[in-house]
Design goal:
The complex is a heterodimer.
Chain A (H helix, E strand, L loop, with lengths): L3 E4 L9 H9 L6 H6 L9 E4 L4 E4 L8 H5 L5 E3 L5 E3 L9 H5 L6 E3 L2 E3 L12 H5 L5 E4 L1 H9 L9
Chain B lengths: L1 E5 L3 H13 L4 E6 L11 H5 L15 H4 L2 E5 L3 E5 L4 E4 L4 E3 L2 E4 L3 E3 L12 E2 L4 H10 L5 E5 L3 H12 L3 E6 L11 H13 L3 E4 L3 E6 L3 E6 L4 E3 L2 E4 L3 E3 L15 E2 L11 E3 L4 E4 L6 E2 L4 H15 L12 E6 L2 E7 L8 E8 L4 E8 L2 E8 L5 H10 L17 H10 L7 H9 L3
Parallel strand pairs in B: 1-2, 1-7, 2-3, 7-19, 9-16, 10-11, 10-16, 11-12, 18-20
Antiparallel strand pairs in B: 4-5, 5-6, 8-17, 13-14, 14-15, 20-21, 22-23, 23-26, 24-25, 25-26
Classes of the chains: A alpha+beta, B alpha/beta.
């Protein structure tokens, strides 16, 4: 499986830099100026949300038994060989079955289809959101690696 | 191990994948009475409306059977299941022996039982063959009458309206989508579909389909007549249980299964629209004939056929669809009857937004969401897991309701949220 994206809530400032970077990465030009001029504005696949106490940047969790894959009647949502949850936007008919069952509410509608985190298929080294995070709250790796990172306590110093 | 699976749709194909996830060697045979494999039944109205082509109808890759080493017998019907001999009898005379059998024969459109039902031009839209039949005559069709204003009828109406036909929907009850929606949300959708040219006629039913060889019209129960060249029967479905009639496999309006998708006969399983399961919310045994339930039941059945001991959580009624750009999702109990229910709602007529929460015993029991559906699954998870929502009740209808609003509940009910996705998110909070 590709590296999973985690968010250390202690570090998230809700700056929404990840949301913007996500939208830009999914634009045609992949630049913020270019993206703004495109016919249909690019859409984010990540959401910064929270309460007074806790803020988190959240997106597809690539669940092991993914409810969206089970529910998809078009075969658009599927598991690739590595276990990533992949969405074939060309096959999607926008029925919303996946939205109905996603326990995290991270699949959104866009015109006649749905969108979700695709783990930046055009990037090889990192993810757009992780790269853009100014505090290092977003992290790509395994659960164990993320746990270790949090345990270093001085997690705010572990910036890129 | 010889696995035989009757039915090649959602439940059957899902079972193949589940079996192959643990048994690479076993012999798998899939028998389907349809010639066209691997197409999604739920998409055929999209296909009829020409919003997708035949290729996009497939919900699995062309080479699915080769890839999973499945012996696919297509265009052949299973006439009879013989659990005593562990055999099935096919319409071409052959008999197949199984070690484990899955019955995933699905369902068929309900018959009306009225005169004229066998005339040319009367269809239920369920199979590709139905679409091909409709396409043959569609050129001469001006007016279509759809019988049934439920989910199936409305989908059919939508597709035929998209083809430029005059569509009239006859609804027996006083409103459309009466099983899925309450009055207020049903009214929103009615306005939207009427605005787009579909005529809704409520409180009436057909008593006869008139014509000679071909359909020419309908007689309604108030004595009035309608002219039409095509009649679509969209009144729901009945499970296809004929093949087990007279066997030890118990049927009660569907094939009875235990919590492991096993039937009353040894080594025989059932899944999908043909199988009775326990409804999570009502506790009653029923059929929730929807794609997600069929896939999940097929998965559980497949795993258990291959030797696992996987329990099925039970089914829940839910549905999602979009009418002319307005998405609608309903989950669970949406039209509560009896005591003990509380309903909270929000309505924004201008933006066609409607949200309703049905609460029972401090728990969310059902929702209706119109034109604001993104968080449907978050509510759904609270419904499915029967979590006490008292502490967040006030914020349930907030426009910024999202996963983080239920995080305290997840943290307080860790035993109910053991899936890895939840565990990873909790990790993010340093728990």
């Amino acid at each position: 499986m590709k590296k999973k994206i985690f968010c250390a809530v202690q570090l998230c400032l809700a700056c929404k830099g990840c949301e913007i970077a996500c939208a830009v990465e999914h634009s045609k030009t992949k630049s913020i100026i270019g993206a703004l001029k495109e016919d249909s504005p690019p859409r984010k696949r990540r959401d910064v949300q929270g309460s007074k106490e806790t803020i988190m940047s959240i997106a597809c969790q690539h669940c092991k038994t993914a409810a969206c894959v089970v529910a998809c009647m078009a075969g658009a949502m599927y598991k690739d060989e590595e276990g990533n949850t992949v969405h074939d936007e060309d096959k999607c008919v926008g029925c919303g079955m996946c939205i109905m069952v996603c326990p995290f509410g991270v699949i959104t509608r866009d015109k006649n289809i749905v969108l979700k985190c695709d783990l930046c298929p055009d990037m090889t080294d990192n993810y757009a959101c992780v790269k853009a995070c100014p505090t290092g709250a977003l992290f790509a790796g395994t659960a164990e690696e993320f746990k270790k990172r949090l345990e270093t306590r001085k997690v705010h110093e572990v910036k890129k | 191990m010889r696995y035989v699976i009757i039915g090649g749709s959602a439940a059957g194909i899902s079972a193949v994948e589940a079996i192959r996830s643990i048994d690479q060697k076993g012999e798998i045979t899939v028998i389907s009475d349809e010639k066209y494999p691997l197409y999604s039944r739920c998409l055929i109205t999209y296909y009829l409306a020409k919003s997708i082509d035949e290729k996009k109808l497939k919900f699995r890759k062309e080479d699915f059977f080769q890839e999973n080493r499945v012996n696919a017998i297509l265009g052949v019907k299973v006439e009879k299941v013989m659990p005593e001999q562990k055999k099935v009898k096919l319409s071409d005379g052959r008999e197949l022996t199984y070690d484990k059998l899955l019955i995933a024969t699905g369902s068929s459109p309900k018959k009306l039982g009225i005169a004229g039902e066998d005339r040319e031009g009367v269809f239920g839209i369920r199979r590709i063959d139905d679409i091909k039949g409709i396409e043959k005559i569609i050129g001469r069709v001006k007016t279509v009458v759809v019988l049934g204003g439920g989910l199936i009828g409305m989908r059919d109406a939508y597709a035929l309206n998209a083809l430029g036909k005059k569509v009239k929907v006859i609804v027996k009850s006083n409103r459309i989508l009466s099983q899925m929606l309450d009055e207020a949300s049903s009214e929103i959708i009615r306005k939207v579909v009427e605005k787009n040219g579909i005529e809704i006629i409520t409180g009436l039913d057909a008593v006869e389909i008139t014509g000679d060889k071909q359909v020419k019209g309908l007689k309604l129960d108030n004595g009035s007549k309608l002219d039409c060249e095509l009649v679509i029967i969209g009144k729901g479905v009945d499970p296809n249980t004929e093949l087990v009639a007279g066997t030890a496999i118990k049927v009660h309006g569907g094939i009875i299964t235990d919590g492991y998708m096993k039937t009353s006969a040894a080594d025989v399983y059932a899944a999908g629209d043909v199988a009775l399961t326990e409804d999570i919310l009502s506790g009653e045994t029923t059929i929730n004939a929807i794609w997600p339930c069929a896939v999940e039941q097929g998965r559980i059945a497949g795993l258990n056929m291959a030797g696992e001991k996987e329990k099925y959580d039970g089914s829940m009624s839910m549905n999602s669809l979009t009418f002319y750009g307005i998405p609608v999702i309903s989950i669970g109990i949406t039209r509560p009857k009896g005591e003990g229910f509380e309903q909270i709602l929000q309505k924004d007529t201008e933006r066609n937004i409607y949200k309703k929460m049905v609460i029972r015993d401090k728990r969310l029991a059902g929702i209706i969401l119109v034109n604001s559906v993104t968080q449907a699954g978050v509510y759904g998870e609270l419904i499915r897991k029967k979590i006490d929502i008292s502490s967040i009740k006030k914020g349930l209808l907030d426009s910024n309701f999202n996963f983080m609003k239920i995080l305290p509940l997840v943290q307080d009910n860790m035993d109910s949220f053991i899936e890895k996705g939840f565990q990873d998110l909790l990790l993010s909070c340093g728990k």
